[in-house]
Amino acid sequence: MRLRVGGREHVLPELADQPPLQAVDRGELHRTLHDHAVAAGVPFTYDKRLTHVDEHPEGVTAHFADGSTATADILVGADGIRSTVRTLIDPAAPGPDYTGMLGFGARVDCDLDLPDDTMVFAFGTKAYYLYWKLADGSAMWGANLPSKQYFSLTQARAIPAEHWLKILRETYAPDSPGAEFARRTTADNLEITGALHIMGPVPHWYRDRLVLVGDSVHAPSNSSGQGAALAIESGVQLARCLRDIATPTEAFATYERLRRARVEGIASRAAKINHSKTPGPFARKIMNAMMPLMVKTVMNPEKTMGAERRYRIDWDAPVQAV
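^ thats the sequence. predicted structure below, dont judge the formating
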């Protein structure tokens, strides 16, 4: 991992005893999980919008906008940052906050003088971006474009890609290799994510037979690089608790105890990174001057990432209720 500030690069220290971080395409991850679930006999139903639930001694019944229902032992809200289930659990629950940045990305043909398995976090003149080289020699880059105006995913994608390309090329024109990435990105390969969000701590993770998992309850900013990983971890821990603890409420309480401190710690770390993504000229000079010292002190990987990276889940270990 490297940090690029203006035209200077700084190599960031790593945890020597840990395997390298892996970048996983979100679409490929979704398809893989879906295919494994189908193979295991899990049914999928689409085009349903949850409106309300009825809880009863035997379980919970979900009601959908088209008039249909579904009944089960529990209801797991894995419904993202705009979670309906979160609101059903706690009508006063906080929602996501806009980070002030829009997300874009693309895979481009570009010769990079960069070692394999290296990711660069670049503080450009006007905006932050990151990039790395792929196995076939091409490059993947992601842009965090500052924007006072909010655009949801749907709103951002309703605007022609050529409009966004024009803004990206103007924004990253002073930067190298950012300008080249923007120039080589086309309307066909531009990935538009829209508004980037972060969510503060959610007071209530569950109620009776309803429980939250993933972005519905812990949505760190994209700066963490851990959103999908945390969701998977929580899914595994929730499954362990339901496997070993008889009542849903006890299982959910234990699941929250296992997860809350970790996810909120990672979200807090990522929030601090967000505040430094658009440094001015003076701040960039200070960053470059201070970086050698910071790498040896405050950026010590053992202090900043040791506990986070060494986290492991022992699936076979029995879970004790709180």
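The mean pLDDT is 90.
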